[in-house]
Amino acid sequence: MRKSVAAVLVTAATVTGMGFAVTPASAAGSCTSGNICLFENNDYNQGNTNHWRDFRGNIRNFNDYNWVGSSDNMDNETSSIKNRRGCTITLYQHIAWEGANSDFSNGANDGFLANNSVGDNRASSIDSWCD
Question: 2-128 adopts what CATH topology?
Answer without folding.
Answer: Gamma-B Crystallin; domain 1 (2.60.20)
